[in-house]
Structures
1.
Amino acid sequence: MARRKYYSIRMRSSKGGVHLSGAEGIYDPDVIGTIVKNYTGRALLHDRGGADEIHLAVEELTETPRKIPSLPLCTVNTRNPESAKKAAMKILTSVGITERAVEEALNALDVGISMRGAMLMDIEGVRLEPDLLRGVRVTRMGTSEKAAQQLSAKLGRLGLNNDTVKEALVLASKVHRYRMVLGELCISDDPSYTTGYVATRAHGYVRLPRIKKKGVPCGGRAFFITGGEVKELIKYLQRTPVLIDEIRPCSGSVTLKELLKPRTRRS
Ligand code: WAQ
Ligand code: MG
């Protein structure tokens, strides 16, 4: 029997030369038309005004996507940027990342230069990505139709069924499948989106509300990594297709104490 075909579909849109929105997924051939229509519609009806330029890529994958489960999701109900950053520090240092590295990442996210991709940092805070201005973009990831329905249902019960959360969870799930990655810190660059997250394999995807004040137009991502071939990691992040086909538990609020207790770890 012929190998099943999969397509990576990616969209990015801009208005007046400024980036507006992006979306991507991995799909069966029979839904390409629907998805292209859907992505185009999203770009044309964006909150910040419709796009005047839309780039679409539809590419047949030469490799069968690796099927993986999502990271489990929860929220630590942090009240302000200070407590959110403190929680991020505790969670990330508990898996062996140094305080210095987390501070470096927080400082870099604060300076106001938004990168297109993520920083790669070793556990001491030394930057390892070859292009320090652009960072590394994770692409070629998606969710199977069945898993997408499950994810919508699970997030819906928490009032979190939106593209921002779903896309971030899919990205973090792909990234953390790779053993060299120990943790991630993410703050949105959208001025009105103030919830960030940290992720580790031990704790899952941990949402941190109010990590930044409303109106702050910068954000970013850092992946904390440990010994291994950085080139191979970058190749995986950018090119290896990964499909989420199973959704792990999505829970509401948990306390930091509960989350950090070794026996409640969610790996
Ligand atoms: N690969 C690597 N880095 C990326 C990518 C990507 N595909 N997309 C964005 N980034 C980097 C880039 O530096 C951005 O400035 C930064 O991440 C933030 O991107 O559960 O929307 O798209 O409620 O603004 C978190 C959701 C949302 C929390 C994060 O990020 C929740 C978000 P944004
Ligand atoms: Mg985004």
2.
Amino acid sequence: MKKFLFPILLFSIIATAHSQDLKAKIKIDIERKVGEVDSLLYGNFTEHLGRCIYGGIYDPKSPQANADGFRKDVLDATKNLGVSIVRWPGGNFASGYHWMDGIGAKESRPKRKDLAWGDTESNQVGTDEFMKFTSASGVEPYVCVNLGTGTLDEARNWVEYCNAPTGLYYSDLRAKNGHPQPYHVKYWGLGNEIDGEWQMGHKNAEDYSKFALEAAKIMKWSDDNIKLIASGSSNYNDKWIDWNRTVLTTLHDYIDYISLHHYSGNHEKDHYKFMAITTRVDNIITITEGLINEVRSRYKMQKPIYIAFDEYNVWYRAFNEQKLEEHYNMQDALVVAMYLNTFIRHANSVKMANLAQLVNVIAPMMVTNDKLWMQTTFYPLSLFAKNAHGESLQTFVQSDKYDAGDYKQIPYLDVSTIYNDKTQEIILSVVNRHQDKAIETSIQNQFGKLADKATVYEVNSANLTDENTVTEQKVKTKEKEISINADNFTYSFPAHSFTMIKIKVKS
Ligand code: AHR
């Protein structure tokens, strides 16, 4: 009998937690600084894949195209999204890409089979075109070199082509192609996901690290101002920690960042498990921070090594046949907001993040013929990019918790807090993970006086499954002003919502 009672009891405890009125407390102290939130956290990624480059950012036949063939609506939406940096040309594509194919007269560029995704690559968008895209959209370029099938010389020559003043073979070639001024590309990736067996030129940790070290040396010797990002883990098997340790140990003198990748999905159709997924991301970051500390301490390093989370997103429905055109819903928008909350909580170590990808392919914006529209995930991303700047704060959060499968003691509220001393504002970002309960939260300010009004931005929709389409934006940001009467105020975070509150502080 007892054997049966226990699960029933457990079920009713969990069910009660999900059904009773929930309360929480958040304490904000602007003196508890974690680290500066780098604007590169609001980065993105464009890969030669599906309709991201061709038919996305670049479509010379579209009525939306500018004189260079780039879609004006995509350029405008990229600015509107607040994107700071864009990684290119891949992804998996980068591991088979030979950059010399993509320069010079467009009609003479070779067509090649891309073995990463199976498409024919026309090479109509290459280095000079990507640079035009970055300057037209006001973003920083981040180039990932081919350390899969590529050579050391290719990597080094690409730096020379982009960054050297004229007078050398490759910089003169750039001038001949119409660009005498160097592009000064600062961020360079040392390959993509080389730990994955799906990668062209996959290597084990030792082989990758040796090869990447030689590439790093000659790339830095070509331009000492560049920042290098080593290919960290993307494949969280039992060897991922060893991979990151080997990479950091071998490359520590040359690299500025180690990259991490993570994709998530509601594979089990379990809301609460899906909502807990970023606790895994938090764990991956914390372990990598530990590895960085270990290596920096062993080599008595002064130079920091940061984390570039240069691919992250929700991605679980659309694979090859659909060219990865995922349609996002309200639930996915919450997960994207939680990725950003996680990066902000680790603002001392995570100094770059790139949502994969920008347009059409697992993206916050889509183009349907001549119309661009925003997916649900666009809204939290743009709110963060536009408002979430300053110092990340360590924040006390007391909230009811739940267990879901392997995920234990997950607080219903996922919170990050920033203090911007230029604008003297607190930016509080809160995801209420609860499926159907609002959470009344006492927000207590520990230092300075809060202004008597605050701006609230909310991303929400009646159903977690609500999606946007080319004709309807069910999920979007709603803005309102609220009055605050004292330093301790109460706010009720609606069920399954993302809320950002911006409040001035008078010191
Ligand atoms: O973003 C889609 C793919 O996901 C990228 O090409 C690859 O790096 C990752 O596995």
3.
Amino acid sequence: MKNIKDYDLDTLKKELELLGEKPYRAEQIFKWLYVDKVKSFDEMTNLSLELRDKLNKSYDICNFNIEKKLESKDGTKKYLFGLQDGNAIESVLMEYHYGKSVCVSTQIGCKMGCKFCASTGIPFVRNLSAGEIVEQVIAIEQDNNCKISNVVFMGIGEPMDNYENVLTAIAILNNNKGMNIGARHISVSTSGVVPKIYEFADKNIQCTLSISLHSANNKIRSSMMPVNDVYNIEELIDACKYYTKKTNRRVSFEYALAKDNNDNLENAQELVELLKGMLCHVNLIPINKIENGKYKKSSLENIIRFRDYLNDHGIVATIRRELGSDIDAACGQLRRKNIKQTKD
Ligand code: SAH
């Protein structure tokens, strides 16, 4: 059955027209779904019984079951949601000084094969629908009785490999008649699917584009991320420059530091050369250890030295606060299903 949350407002209007209804009905439904966040059509009391019946026959309201919830000592919460087809995905709630942020998954599994990421090695199953992406935010808001201010597309999956559904999810999250999360409060992270970055730039949505860079050197980057053999660093940087030209937005580069791999001053120097003159920000992350992973975290001393080198050479860089690593909720630790036994 079709999921009512898979449609942005304009498309929902068309769906309602097909049912012989006036477009303003779509706005009413949209409000019930994303402002009141009801779980059934029967609660939509300003719709006629007849329309509610029609909706019940044609659409599902995708509600997730919380299969498991883990809470870190820093307040971060990791959710394992059961989907209607029996699959499961992980999402994370993080608390920052500016508000609450949800990290959403976009696919069940991931095809990108990054060597340092826990989502690798688990077979890819399918894309998440737009409604399944949005529902992660709604379910977390409801479980915590709170309003989410930021959404980051940094969970399991490659957003640019599920481009259409991600765009629809952004449109739903962003709509001021619904969830009303500002585009500037939404970040989309990509391992570097260059053609999609151009398409995304042309949409000029004003989201933050995050690039998982991890090295300024093609040889090192290719050893960490197979996508670099398809779109190399130069092509990727050109696409980022285009993004900034089209949107006036600063691009954010993610750089996970691994001991003796990409964390020495020569690596920092190469990064400075690469990013010189760009409107950008570098987020340094101590690489998170994953099961059977070969990469080890850089020492804090090395990370600080790396950051200082960038800052001293005109590149704005900060060290990202690690959240949720004790519950395997930190960057790169999400899996399709948390099979590992974790103490609850
Ligand atoms: N596929 C997208 C989004 C998911 S990954 C992307 O690649 O950007 C979210 C972020 O976590 C990316 O920056 C990714 O490179 C990073 N990441 C993955 N594994 C990690 C690890 N073990 N330690 C630190 N960061 C990691």
4.
Amino acid sequence: MTTILMASHQDPVDLWRAALAAEMPELEFRAHPDPGDPAEVDYALVYWAPHGLIASLPNVKAVLSIAAGCDHVLADPDLPPGLPIVRMVDDYLAAMMAEYAVYGVLHFHRNMHFYRQEQLKSQWSRGWPLYTPDTAVGILGLGAIGTTCAAKLGELGFQVHGWSRGPKSVAGVTCHHGADGLEEMAAQCRYLVCVLPLTPETQGIINTRLIKAMPQGGYIINIARGGHHVDEDILAGLDSGHLGGVFLDVHNEEPLPPAHPFWLHEKVWMTPHVAGELIPRSCAKSVVRNIRRIEAGEEVPDLFDKARGY
Ligand code: NAP
């Protein structure tokens, strides 16, 4: 008998139970706070699990993240070192993230922010559009999600650039890498979309330096983690006019405190960390695929790499 324990304060337990049962009927499903005998738990399926919960499972073989990023697992100070952590890599998650990236870019590209303001003043103001094939979008992060965003934006006719840690070749994408590559890319892009993992190297990467590297009036869409952007630098960029607007799904503090200046800023568009939801009927396939690989002693490509930090 293989047993999985789910612990998440926001994911739907009933949908996960049903989705996992459909994919792997022989899997015993339990949910925190009712783990049964902790010694029987083989896998912990978690999103921001209570600290110490994973350490209380003496025979757990791996942590399965209910998120593409593993920051929520690593935040547990009692996490047993050396325990494998498996990222969530899911086509539907990548597709949802790409939908949001496309929406954010088109929102600004088709001047919806301007037309909304004009509507609220009962003003019939017509602007002149930019020519999409002359317009460049830069994707920060060219992984599972970034390459999907790049493909969808490319289908719309944008010039697509992408930035990764190491050199990469992606069809239809002008690829950049390393510190110099980021500024080289930013200088050409009216829109930047961030889909990086949060690591010590990428923390605070959306800062005044990057904003100034962009052309005047550029836009930033951050759908990765709030830790990537420096709030004060975004506000300074917006207020100086160098940044035309931002679309933020993620924040340095979540929930964003009611007094935060982003809430009422006319150039800030935001959502409460909903860019990519983990839909159980799709993600359960990835979870079961990885359990079967671990049980068979096979390599797990979606393993979190502690040395790289993602
Ligand atoms: P992934 O497949 O691991 O890809 C990460 C990409 O980032 C890779 O291209 C990697 O470069 C690049 N990268 C990492 N560190 C870098 C650095 N220091 N400099 C330049 N590039 C760097 O990750 P993913 O599955 O696409 O997910 C990306 C992130 O999206 C997650 O970590 C998560 O935080 C976020 N996310 C947010 C939501 C939401 O709802 N807001 C939902 C899902 C995911 P290489 O190719 O060279 O390795």
